[in-house]
Write a structure and sequence with these properties.
It comes from Marivirga sericea. The chain is built from 17 helices and 40 strands. It has three domains: 284 residues, Class I glutamine amidotransferase (GATase) domain (Rossmann fold, 3-Layer(aba) Sandwich); 232 residues, Class I glutamine amidotransferase (GATase) domain (Rossmann fold, 3-Layer(aba) Sandwich), CATH 3.40.50; 84 residues, Immunoglobulin-like, CATH 2.60.40.3080. Helix 1 crosses helix 7.
């Protein structure tokens, strides 16, 4: 005989409260999203669900119409019965026969979609009562994507729409970060998140944990499940991972929050991959064998580094002011950029208005003849603040000649301050991912490629354009590549910057290295104090595995504007600079070569007579070494070269013997 509604619901509530107070009584299958594949990743976890449903009857619930693929799939895995059940309103969810209709199944599975509709339609209805009754008697409740999200003790309701990582870094109390704990509290001390690495949801989940702490003064734990990955939790609260990705388990220790922004946090992270298990009661990983060890060895430099992905002056004023105030030696400023960068003028004006130092411009070109750039090299030696404004391929330039080699060495000298603006900031480590923004599936198929970096920040892996809304197709590439470098390269830190956020690495008066990450948003900092790890062995295509890892311990921080002392530093031994002297020929010496500069100062035309039998390459450079003119002076010739477009200044005229390469220099004064 059917129990009356009041008594039934009261009994279910009592049983649930009693059982949850001891331990969970039922089974949960948490699927992070992604399509099921017959004969693929989903067979094992969906088989687990069938096996743990005693009567092998599965009800598949959604608020929309569905075909029979999923019911047939469950039957193929051993279900005696599997049916689609459409419940698309509160009225239908609360019909008098709904409890009995659902209670006949020992397994209920919720499809993906919009969790806010599940929450709106099913909370405090016969559907909720049936779910809790089935779970309490040892049945199985499962769900994928939105259908998994509703099984969370503290649930992200999505009542105001989805929340992106960007939202969590902007304001943890924004209208999008909507949490409730009044629906299905199977594990009341956890919040579950889906599509975890695919959608870069590390900052979102930590933001949820911070939001709950801020409003309830309670530290709860988080579990993030990747797409095409399931976390199957049995009646003993042992959860096992099945699939191509990972389960990420976050244990927060503290949060510091100001005006909705996380300024500091401390979250311990564990990751599990296929067939690895975790005890939700004791918060311990069950026995597993991780084959690799990541053990950082600190290598902190005795120079200063600032970096951001931004390059427009209005977005970089804060980092520039920070660098200027931190600069230690007070010598020249070297502004390094690609040729003809339209942003140079704004930066020169800003620097002139905010410093008293001489500003030297270096426009990089690997094709330039660098031997004659003596004045430029001496300017490099006299610079202590170097600003790299979208400089192009620095590594190529460093290997292109004497000036490049000097610049590469100079930026690592004691107490030099370097500022990197634009995508070059991603290259500060020993190596960096070079194709994260090319194909959204590179990390999924294990196709992330790495190139040699600048090696300035050997303990760091940095991505400067991480969680912008325009980057969301690449979140898995971004998230996975930093963790890959931290683990495989034994790095101490991984940093994800977004928008105008920037990092500063400075030296204090006690020779301690100071790390700060600042800007309009909070940022994500990964700390590696040493951990065992192993890449997943599950194949997604042929022999390819995702760039996802199991590891025992990484520490995640979301930070903004907080300074961290990260270690002792010491000056390195270095030789004092020996400045080069230019060999500048007099007019008489030019005459000895058979070449005559017919007029100096020069107004519109540079006039040269070559009475010799030799051909000379002629180049005109600024005193800083930038090439402004290039031609050939034939033997036994009189040539005029138009240079009227050049500003009034001193220049170096270089004559190069085209046979033996010997060079001769003369100063030229250009007037109007």
């Amino acid at each position: 005989m059917r129990l009356n509604s009041y008594f039934r619901i009261s009994l279910v509530v009592y049983l649930c409260l009693f059982s949850f107070g001891l331990q969970a009584q039922g089974n949960l299958m948490l699927v992070g999203g992604g399509g099921e594949i017959d004969g693929g990743w989903s067979d094992t976890p969906y088989q687990w669900m069938v096996d743990n449903a005693e009567n092998k009857k599965i009800g598949i619930i959604s608020y929309s119409d569905a075909d029979n693929w999923l019911p047939d799939y469950f039957v193929s895995l051993g279900a005696n019965e599997a049916v689609n059940i459409k419940i698309d309103s509160r009225d239908l969810a609360n019909q008098s026969n709904m409890f009995d209709s659902l209670n006949q199944y020992d397994g209920l599975f919720f499809k993906g979609g919009d969790q806010s509709r599940y929450y709106e339609y099913y909370k405090d209805t016969e559907v909720q009562a049936a779910i809790e009754a089935i779970y309490s008697r040892g049945g199985v409740i499962g769900g994928t994507s939105a259908g998994m999200a509703i099984l969370s003790g503290v649930m992200f309701t999505a009542s105001n729409g989805s929340a992106y990582p960007y939202d969590a870094l902007t304001d943890i109390n924004s209208e999008f970060m909507k949490l409730q704990n009044d629906f299905l509290s199977f594990y009341p001390d956890y919040i579950f998140d889906t599509h975890f690495v695919e959608r870069g949801r590390t900052p979102r989940l930590i933001g949820f944990l911070a939001n709950w702490f801020d409003k309830n003064s309670q530290l709860i734990k988080g579990i993030g499940i990747d797409d095409r990955t399931a976390f199957c939790i049995n009646t003993q609260s042992f959860g096992t991972v099945y699939g191509t990705g990972a389960a990420s388990i976050y244990h927060p220790k503290d949060f510091q929050i100001q005006e909705g922004k996380i300024t500091n946090s401390n979250v311990s992270a564990i990751q599990l991959t296929h067939a690895q298990s975790y005890d939700l009661n004791t918060s311990q990983v069950l026995e597993r064998n991780l084959s690799e060890m990541s053990q950082p060895e600190s290598s902190l430099p005795y120079y200063q580094v600032f970096a951001t992905s931004e390059s427009i002056l209005s977005n970089t004023r804060n980092i520039l002011q920070d660098a200027i105030s931190s600069e230690k030696l007070g010598m020249k400023i070297l502004l390094v950029s690609k040729p003809n960068n339209s942003k140079i003028a704004d930066y020169k004006q800003f620097l002139a208005e905010n410093t008293s130092s001489e500003i030297v411009l270096l426009e990089l070109s690997a094709d330039e003849e660098q031997d004659q750039q003596i004045a430029l090299r001496n300017n490099i030696r006299e610079s202590s603040l170097l600003i790299f404004l979208e400089p192009g391929n620095l590594i190529e330039y460093f290997n292109s000649g004497a000036t490049g080699e000097l610049l590469a060495a100079h930026i690592t000298r004691n107490e030099i301050t370097n500022v990197f603006l634009g995508s070059v900031a991603n290259q500060l480590g020993e190596n960096y991912a070079n194709n994260i923004y090319q194909d959204p599936f590179n990390a999924y198929y294990g196709d992330i490629e790495f190139s040699d970096g600048l090696g300035l920040m050997k303990d760091f892996s940095i991505i400067t354009a991480s969680y912008g809304l325009d980057d969301k197709d690449y979140y898995e590439n971004i998230t996975s590549s930093v963790v890959d470098r931290v683990l495989r390269e034994n790095l101490s830190y991984g940093i994800y910057l977004t928008g105008n956020t920037y990092l500063s690495y400075t030296l204090n008066e006690n020779d301690r290295a100071i790390l700060k990450i600042d800007g309009d948003l909070s940022s994500v900092l990964v700390e590696n104090f040493g951990t065992k790890y192993a890449q997943t062995d599950q194949k997604v295509s042929g022999s390819s595995s995702r760039l996802q890892y199991a590891f025992d311990s990484l520490n995640y921080k979301i930070v903004r504007g907080i300074e961290f002392e990260i270690g002792d530093v010491a000056a390195t031994e270095q030789e004092d600079y020996q400045f080069e002297e230019e060999e500048v020929l007099s007019s008489n010496e030019l005459l000895d070569l058979g070449v005559k500069l017919l007029q100096n100062p020069v107004q519109s035309n540079l006039k040269l007579r070559n009475n010799s039998s030799k051909n000379y390459k002629i180049q005109v450079s600024t005193m800083e070494g930038s090439l402004v003119f290039d031609s050939i002076l034939q033997n036994h010739s009189l040539r005029e070269f138009y240079v009227g477009y050049l500003p009034s200044s001193q220049y170096i005229v270089v004559l190069s013997d085209v046979v033996n390469g010997k060079k001769y220099f003369i100063k030229m004064l250009k007037t109007n």
